[in-house]
Amino acid sequence: MALVAVVSGSYLGYRQLSQPSCTGSVPLSVAASPEIVEPIKAAAEAKVAAGAGVDGRCLEVTVQAAEPVEIAAAIATKHATTLTGVGQGSGATVLPDVWVPDSSTWLQRLEQAAPGFQPLNGASVATSPVVVAMPEPLAKTTVGWPDKKLQWSELLGQMTSSDSPLKAGIVDPARDASGLAGLLALGQASAGNGNDAARVGVLRTLALNRSNLRADLMAKFPKSEDPAALADGVSLAALSEEDVIAYNATQPPVSLAALYVEPAAVALDYPFAVMPEADAAKGNAADLLFGELTSSPAYRDALAKAGLRSADGSAGGGFAAPTGAPSPAAIAASAPATGGGAANGLDAAAIGRALASWTAITSPGRMLVVFDVSGSMLSPVPTAADKTRNQVMVEAAGRGLGLLDNEWWLGVWVFSTELQGSRDYRELVPIGQLSKQRDALQASLGEVQPVDGGATGLYDTVLASYLAVQEGYQADKVNSVVLFTDGQNEDANSISREELVAQLKEKSDAKRPVRVILIGIGNEVNKEELESIAAAGGGGAFVAQDPAKIDEIFLQAIASRAATVG
């Protein structure tokens, strides 16, 4: 039996050429995170060499290294959507039959954004705990490494302390699974303390030293044990255990300690995702490869040499565990269960909230917030201790305002019907830089009071707010209208919905794009109406049928600004 390596670009494939039982071939393309490519290639080669086939046809496997964010962007683009902070995919990216990203969080984000994306299998074929990487000298002096165990809540305190010697960094969590895992862990720690200020403080601290690429962040670690160099470089960052092993293998001037902070962050779990478009033959071929990845001792050892653990958290021969690593049993106890993200305790809503908060912090915009003050906003919300819809809305907006940094530009309007003469809307605070009017904006929320008996003048208000934002357009920011409403248009003297949609399309300007984001509150809104208006305004519509969940919806709306198409 003869084998040949087929090389094309960054592909390396293995194909069986002479096998009497072969009547053809079943090609299977695999895209995997770069750090796991070599073990998968070796496993594919072994499976082909063993004469594996499907229905009398020989197995042909090509394995390509691909950054997860690139494949995720391409999948999202194919499904006419985008992921927060990721943007459009490259038209040159060819989607594989099997995708092995570094984390199930990619699959969860895609399934949330594109319900039509339903990959098969999804079980883990490797794992790498997410640790906090810290230069060894600082780890010894600041946290007592390797003897002392560190809690995320303690780390939170270190990061937010005014006299802390630590400088935190992060790889953009919207584009990197390790960064996202660290962000989720810190978010849970701050939520456990009930400390919103600490959560916002950590987000802003991380944003100061964020990198788009993991290699860029690694380059920011200190290159000398000189105190000045240690103080100037990045002191801690959420990375994978494999990252730390690979970094230290280069024998850097200052090695990194891997801190296994408790409770364990979401580990990278390398799901084996068979794409929905794969036909039955490719699906069977994928099953053959998956069997090799889950049963072969050689694959387990290949993972170990690449600095990765097996799916159950154990390690093969030759694994160089970092100093202070927990026992294999302890790692295995916190490893992802077969089945991917949901089994690993991941929550799509929590991921969405974390990334939305991150986007609000790191992507300053120019926004006009418009509040519905019609009489129906006085309706009580049973799930919020009978607070009114208005109270729930204003409280959520206040918390959202606390997230935004001083680079934002913000203004506030209210609307009902005939609030100012025949106009349905009234300006409370003009759009201006938050650094100069934060107090005025906070105070204006107290003026957002429902008008007893007031109706909903939706259409005129949407058009007026759109034009107001467009008039003062700032090219270096995402310009948007975020409008809250709990009803449908009730102004008989206003333009019609058809006229509003036509006007929004007519006034749209590719050189001055404005996003219209509509947030429906309660079950009396017409979602189809909101969606048609938002689409014409280059934005999106969100509905919080339970007004008590408006915080989450508001964050989604803020995050959606950069994901909409003008």
UniProtKB/TrEMBL annotation:
<dbReference type="InterPro" id="IPR002035">
    <property type="entry name" value="VWF_A"/>
</dbReference>
<protein>
    <recommendedName>
        <fullName>VWFA domain-containing protein</fullName>
    </recommendedName>
</protein>
<dbReference type="InterPro" id="IPR036465">
    <property type="entry name" value="vWFA_dom_sf"/>
</dbReference>
<dbReference type="Pfam" id="PF00092">
    <property type="entry name" value="VWA"/>
</dbReference>
<feature type="domain" description="VWFA">
    <location>
        <begin position="366"/>
        <end position="558"/>
    </location>
</feature>
<dbReference type="Pfam" id="PF13531">
    <property type="entry name" value="SBP_bac_11"/>
</dbReference>
